[in-house]
Amino acid sequence: MPTPDAGPLLALFKRILCQDQKALAALYKMTIGRVYGLALRIARNEAAAEEIAEDVYLQVWKSAASYSQERGHPLAWMMVITRSRALDHLRRADIAVSHPEPETLASYADTGDDPQDLLLALQSGNALHAAIATLPAVQRQLLALAFFQGLSHSEIAAHARLPLGTVKTHLRQALAALRAKLAH
After folding, report:
1. Contact in structure between 57 and 12 (CB atoms under 8 Å)
2. What pLDDT score was predicted for residue 145?
C-alpha cells in the first residue's frame, strides 16, 4: 500500500481545522487501511483495533492544529497517535483478555500466596533486567522490538533498516548471552 502524498493530506488537515466533516471523511478513506492495520498489529483484536482507529480520527478532528509540518509527514503523525492509543489499550487490558490462551493462566493464579515464591520471582526479574542492561545497545533495542512490541524478524529488519540476517544474528547472540548470564 503506497504512502499517500503529504500535499493532499495537508490540504485535508487545513479543512479539518475549519471543522469540515467531508475533509475528515476523505482523510479516513485515504488512511484507514494504515491506521487500522497498525492498531490491529499491536492490539491483536479486531474490535479493539476498530475502537483505536475511531479514537485516532477523533483526536485528529480535535487536535489537527497540533500537527506541525516541520515534524514530518501527516500520516506519520497519525501513526504515532495510533501506536500510542494501541499501547494504551494494551496497558489497560486485562491479561486474561489479551492472553492468546487465557485458560493457561489458571495455573499461575495459584502460585502467589507463598512469600518465598514472590521473593524468587522478584530476584529473577532483577537478574533479567541486570543481564539485559549488559547487552550492547543494538541488541537491547532489537530485543525490545521483538518481545515488547511483538515484531517479526522481517518487521524488525525493516524498522531498524538492517539486513534480515544481521537482525537474526543480533537476536540469537543476545539470547545466548542472556541464557549464559542467567544460568549462574
Report:
1. no
2. 84
